[in-house]
Design a protein that fits this description.
Elements lengths: L6 E13 L38 H13 L3 E2 L6 E4 L9 E4 L6 E9 L5 E13 L3 E5 L3 E5 L6 E7 L6 H17 L12 E13 L2 E4 L3 E3 L5 H21 L5 H4 L2 E6 L4 E7 L9 E2 L10 H11 L3 H12 L3 H7 L3 H12 L4 H19 L10 H12 L5 H13 L8 H7 L8 H14 L1 H9 L4 H15 L6 H14 L1
Parallel strand pairs: 12-13
Antiparallel strand pairs: 1-9, 1-10, 2-5, 3-4, 3-15, 5-6, 6-9, 7-8, 10-11, 10-12, 13-14
The structure holds zinc ion.
Length: 496
């Protein structure tokens, strides 16, 4: 008998920790600061000294609420704080304040774009608030130092349903989530600073011989880049399939859940330990903190602040302004840039030219300043103005960059029109036909060989037009309107 074909379906879920954008920690007033001198941003509360009492950071609570609303979650009318007990050197209290059975928000959906242009909704089990631990710094083989500056930093933990079908989709989810939290000002989500960390859960549903097998769930701990998320999930999918093929008892029922680490150098997962269950943590309500009941108008206020989500906005920009997804990567990277774009449209800019300017000249200036286009401080009216004078041919597409630079440099001065700025800088295109004709004639006179070639071989005519236009641009010091120059050159070539 021929063996039946094996069908493998990966099942992937994610736990994501996002550091909330607050100035101070979750339960004390210590500043949240990256790379401060070790143990210089601590106090009795975050050191867990006896008698110190935690107080909730209102801003962290609001940001977490905002995230819950943005993830289409049901926001709890009543939520409380629990102690999750475990012992680890970077945890001075020997418990972490988290949320167990009554999280801030539950049961949401988050839409991610798929490469084919469609979207997929991924279920969100919960999003809750908790505090971060400190950091162990392993130095050599014989000693480890502990820095508690990070202890007590507010974190939002987001747990998805296992709706992701593989490594690429998981990476897409992470990218889109980063865009969301940045867009809403919830987190800076800078992975190099550990502000966004991922823990994928991976297993396989294997159909074979009329039966379905489920491999053990691997939880891969503490990944801090999109790349490692993709590689680690891909690695686990292959490893689990291999293990099961060698031993059909390699199943969830027989082996349970397991924790793995990720070795970025070997690009492989490493078994750490069997996974603990929630009863291992001895959760119980924190007696030092009162439960939180969000005021109804606070939830409404957050809903208003969230507004249109990036995925929906991207869909609309593609449909309304003819953008590609690639254009959207720059224009919708943050909320301000998208708003500025639409303000410029409102001020009368042509969408096609404006898109080109945003991803070209304005983005060029923005990357030089380490800010987004939306944060350059250039007002929408002048951006629209520049798009207008390029569309109507007053300045060339090439000169537009110089005009944009001048607009940017004078952004705090009197609001001169783009045309005025271009005129002062001598960047207005020459469209006077007699002046143009003179440059064309001069170009013809100094390049008889090109004209002769074009006349002999029609295939070379196009190249000759390009070459001669270049000469005209040079003679005019860049002021000639290239389109008009091209027309005059073609006409003269035909006459030759
Ligand atoms: Zn503190």
């Amino acid at each position: 008998m021929v063996a039946k074909e094996i069908q493998i379906r990966p099942i992937v879920g994610l736990e994501i920790h996002v550091q909330l954008s607050t100035r101070t920690k979750m339960f004390c007033r210590c500043p949240v600061e990256f790379a401060a001198a070790p143990n210089s941003r601590v106090c009795p509360v975050c050191l867990g000294l006896p008698g110190a009492l935690p107080v909730i950071n209102r801003r962290a609570y609001e940001l977490a609420l905002k995230a819950g609303v943005a993830l289409n979650c049901r926001v709890a009318a009543f939520t409380k704080w629990d102690r999750k007990s475990y012992y680890y050197p970077d945890m001075p209290k020997n418990y972490q304040i988290s949320q167990y059975d009554l999280p801030l928000s539950e049961d949401g959906l988050f839409e991610i774009p798929r490469p084919d242009g469609s979207t997929k909704a991924i279920g969100i089990i919960r999003a809750h608030l908790e505090e971060d631990a400190g950091k162990n710094m392993h130095e050599g083989l014989d000693h480890t130092r502990v820095d508690l500056n990070r202890a007590g930093t507010p974190l939002l933990e987001i747990v998805t349903r296992p709706d992701l079908c593989g490594a690429d989709e998981a990476q897409l989810f992470c990218t889109e989530l980063q865009r969301l939290v940045r867009y809403l000002g919830i987190s800076e989500a800078d992975m190099q600073k550990g502000q966004m960390r991922f823990e994928p859960n991976v297993n396989l549903a294997i159909s074979w011989n009329g039966r379905e097998y489920r491999t053990p769930i691997s939880e891969i701990k503490n990944l801090n880049s999109f790349r490692s998320v993709r590689l680690a999930i891909g690695y686990e999918i292959e490893r689990q399939a291999r293990e099961w093929k060698a031993d059909h008892d390699y199943t969830l029922e027989k082996r349970g859940k397991m924790n793995f680490g990720w070795d970025d150098v070997r690009e492989a997962t490493e078994f750490q330990r069997g996974k603990e269950e929630s009863h291992d943590y001895r959760y119980f309500p924190d007696p030092d903190l009162t439960p939180a009941v969000p005021e109804p108008n606070l939830i409404e206020a957050m809903r208003a602040e969230v507004g249109e989500l990036p995925v929906a906005r991207q869909r609309r920009f593609v449909a309304e302004y003819g953008m590609t997804d690639k254009d959207c990567e720059i224009i919708l990277a943050d909320r301000e840039t998208g708003v500025l774009y639409e303000d410029a449209i409102g001020a009368g800019a042509d969408a096609k030219t404006l898109t080109k300017h945003f991803i070209g000249i304005w983005n060029h200036i923005a990357s030089g300043t380490n800010r987004s286009v939306g944060r350059l401080g250039v007002d929408a009216a002048r951006i629209a103005d520049l798009a207008g004078i390029v569309t109507d041919g007053t300045v060339s597409a090439t000169a537009a960059q110089q005009v944009a630079d001048l607009i940017y440099r004078s952004r705090e001065g009197p609001p001169d029109s783009a045309e005025h700025i271009a005129a002062v800088a001598g960047l207005v295109q020459e469209r006077d036909e007699s002046a143009m004709q003179a440059w064309v004639d001069e170009a013809f006179a100094s390049n008889p060989k090109a004209i002769e070639d074009a006349a002999k071989n029609p295939k070379k005519a196009k190249a000759a037009v390009g070459f001669l236009r270049g000469q005209v641009m040079k003679l005019s010091k860049g002021k000639a309107d290239p389109r008009l120059a091209g027309e005059l050159i073609e006409k003269k070539l035909k006459e030759a």
